[in-house]
Amino acid sequence: MSDSSPNIVVIIAAGMGSRLRSDEGPPKPLLPLNGRALILRVLDRFEEAGVQEAVVVVGHRAKEVMAGVEEGNPSLKVTFITNPHYRMSNGLSVLAARDVVGYRPFFLSMADHVFDASLIRGLAGAELPPEGLVLAVDRKLDQIYDEDDATKVLTRDGRIVEIHKELAEFDAVDTGLFSCTPALFDRIREAAATREDGDCTLSDGVKALAVKGLALVHDIGDGRWQDVDTPGALAHATKSF
Q1: pLDDT digits (tens, 9 = 90+) for 20-30
Q2: Within a domain: residue 3?
Q3: Average pLDDT over residues 214-228
Q4: What angle, rounded to 10 degrees, do the helices at 183-193 and 202-211 form?
Q5: Per-residue model confidence (pLDDT) at position 118
Q6: Residue 145: CB partners within 8 Å, gap ≥ 6?
Q7: Cβ-based neighbour number of residue 203 at 10 Å
Q8: Neighbours of 2 (CB within 10 A)
């Protein structure tokens, strides 16, 4: 990692995890994958990549998630932030981390995505545009597990043109791993202010930066990752990792 690379990661661990029936067992971030909870695997990979601090945004079954992380004894410094609006979209969980992150660049990851540390190192080496972000994308479309459920990305000249789960035309898939400037917080806040209920997705913030040409992509190449969002995806990740 270069001296200008982010040294803090925001990990979103606030969601309901309804498709994995997280009310019938441990909360989704604590689901074990080959003996290690999903969120602890995420923290392990960032530690392996040299990141020293993490902000974990919790919501659904927050006390259990926090206790599970602490029991896992991660070496990173971990700060917990509670998103009281966790039943709404994930953009509000990102926004909840703003005060802790401050004006620093930061990595952003989901608690239910597993990946190799090489993805973080590669992303750390990608040039982060001022007032923008870089999204790690997978262009190995023939190897995506459950492509229908993936967030699709259309790119042009290394920049995001469109990002949405329902895109008909796309050339990459969102891995859920970002390198960001605090401008993302501003775009999410502005998008939320346009809605009566104050809701906003992470993709809304990314799209706002993409319109200005400030949302870049980094190809993960042969790197491995998996979004663990369904029982089938959990089984697939168990075999792969």
Answers
A1: 655 568 999 99
A2: no
A3: 96
A4: 110
A5: 95
A6: 226, 232, 233, 236
A7: 21
A8: 7
- pLDDT, tens digit, for every residue of 145-189? 989 889 999 999 999 999 999 999 999 999 999 999 999 999 999
**What's residue 27's pLDDT?**
94
- 2 falls within a domain: no
Could you tell me which residues come within 8 angstroms of residue 5 by beta carbon, excluding any fewer than 6 positions away? 105, 124, 125, 179
| Within-domain flag for 1 | no
For residue 4, CA distances in Å to 75, 87, 106, 125 come to 22, 35, 11, 9
**pLDDT per residue as tens digits for the range 43-57:** 999 999 999 999 999
Query: Domain range for residue 177?
Result: 8-240
CA angle, 49 as apex, 79 and 189 as ends, to 5°? 45
Secondary structure E strands in the chain: 8-13, 32-33, 36-37, 53-58, 77-82, 106-110, 113-115, 133-138, 152-156, 159-164, 172-180, 215-219, 225-227
Residue 28 in domain: yes
| CA trace torsion 184, 3, 49, 159 (10° rounding) | 40
- What CATH number has the domain bearing residue 173? 3.90.550.10
Q: How far apart are CA 119 and CA 137, in angstroms?
A: 10
**For the chain, what is the domain count?**
1
Tokens of 143: 């190897």
